[in-house]
Amino acid sequence: MFPIETPTTLLLVDDDESMVRLLSRIMERSFGDRIQLHALTNAQAAMAWMEANLADILVTDLEMPGANGLELIRKVKRRNPCAQVLLMTAHSTLDALMNALEVGATDYLLKPLDQAEFIMLIEDAQKRLRRWRQALAGTIAARRKPPALSRS
After folding, report:
1. How far is C-alpha 151 from the geometric centre of its chain's CA atoms?
2. Which of 61, 24, 64 is nearest to 44 (CA)?
3. Residue 1 banded pLDDT, cuts 50, 70, 90
4. Pairwise CA distance, residues 54 & 143, whole Å
5. pLDDT tens column, 62-108
6. Cα–Cα distance, 104 to 119 (Å, whole number)
7. Given strand 57-61, what is the order of strands in its sheet?
8. Global pTM?
9. Which residues contact 78 (CB under 8 A, 6 or more apart)?
10. Exposed, middle or buried: residue 119 (CB in 10 Å: 0-12, 13-18, 19+)?
11. Which of 71, 69, 73 lies closest to 57 in space, CA to CA?
């Protein structure tokens, strides 16, 4: 069964260490213990982390050495189809935007990020995640109920 009310596991990946520090501070200050934050500065390390863990929310840069954000999105979605994804980039193109939609990005953010918008998008992602968990829990519970007896 999917727990509906648990801390959100958020994986933050960006090869820019200062961006990771900044976003980590913003999330810790804004969400406290409602988010279990895992912040990485290496896309390959993020791929390895996802082998052993499930992320509820992925916040990733698009362009990084070793792997790009689209590869991370594909991996997180295979492991957790309910995962919410925020893709960040300083170099947006129409192709990048279309590819992000195709692989399942929830939101697409242009750098430099607006702090208030970033916090709002994480809150929105948590709400969507909660709705997906409720839908899954309800669907599983409905499948476990014995069929109603009919009166003939």
Report:
1. 48
2. 64
3. very low
4. 25
5. 999 988 999 999 999 999 999 999 999 998 999 999 999 999 999 99
6. 20
7. 35-40, 8-13, 57-61, 84-89, 107-110
8. 0.88
9. none
10. middle
11. 73
